[in-house]
């Protein structure tokens, strides 16, 4: 609990990792078209953001700040975040070749997180992170 939280953009997609869950969560996710705007919003709100609610509002703020920074970096490779790594038992619901616009997917996560978590993110932004 006392270890500093180091945000990693890959944490955002934790809910989309379906290793050994293909017949449960995988089937649920595959009902949606990850490249369709309405379906993507449902995926993000119902799976991605809901899965991150275990994080404190401060952790979510730091994670969204890291995502903002990545989105501001024109060279950041968002496609790599969708790559499965079978050596680490990570299988993504959709791989990097199935996501038409990986940067857009993450931009939608950022936009929706700022909408859904508005109050928590605002609260954290008014605090001094050095006291965390």
Unreliable residue runs: none
Radius of gyration from the alpha-carbon trace, in angstroms: 15 Å
What amount of the residues lies in strands?
under 5%
Give the overall shape.
Answer: globular
Largest sheet: none
Task: Give the helix proportion (percent range).
Answer: 40-55%
Coarse structural class? mainly alpha
SS field, number of helical segments: 5
Q: Average pLDDT value?
A: 93
- Kindly give the count of domains: 1
Q: How far apart lie the N and C ends?
A: 12 Å
Strand element count: 0
| Secondary-structure element order, N to C | HHHHH
Describe the structure.
The protein is mainly alpha-helical and 132 residues long. The protein has one domain. The protein has 5 helices and no strands. α2 crosses α4, α3 packs antiparallel against α4 and α3 crosses α5. The longest helix has 15 residues. The termini are close together. The mean pLDDT is 93.
